[in-house]
Amino acid sequence: MFMGSYDHSLDTKGRMIIPSKFREALGERFVITKSLDHCLCIYDMAAWERFVQKLSGLPYNTRKQRELVRFFLSGASEVEPDKQGRVLLTQNLRDHAHITKDVILMGVGARIEIWDPATYEAEAFSDDMNEIAEELLGNGFEI
Q: Model confidence over 39-68: pLDDT tens digits?
């Protein structure tokens, strides 16, 4: 389970450091892909395989299914950190997430999200988290 938040910057080649705490849990290889939000997601190989299995289970005869699979898989990048713990964010992934220099990496359970700070501020949360909790989980949800 991933949790916590880290601020980093890309170097001139488009590489970023994966925090050591995350690297340990991710293993030697992992996958970075687009998210439905304007951010990126990192999956360890086991979580990625489960995700791909779910996508593969959708009926192929519908256009929306093919588009969804294409969205996640066509831009996915299997990466292996270098000795300094850096990975390359490909240009198509950076474009999707509006990433130019600075990034926020945050653990959100089974995956890690990578956000451009300005995009995160503008898009990551709705105004009323209480309303969201009630809508999704019912009035009996307690924290």
A: 999 999 999 999 999 998 888 888 988 999
Phi and psi at 122, nearest 5°, equal -80, -30
If one counts every other C-beta atom within 10 angstroms of the C-beta of residue 56, the result is 11
pTM comes to: 0.88
The interaxial angle of helices 63-74 and 45-56, nearest 10 deg, is: 160
Query: Two tokens at 58?
Result: 């959708």
Phi, psi of 8 (to 5 degrees): -145, 175
CA 99 to chain centre: 13
pLDDT tens-digit readout, 109-135: 999 999 999 999 988 877 676 677 777
Tell me the two tokens of residue 63: 């256009």
Q: What is the CA radius of gyration of the chain?
A: 16
Q: Give the C-alpha separation, 86 to 84, whole Å.
A: 6
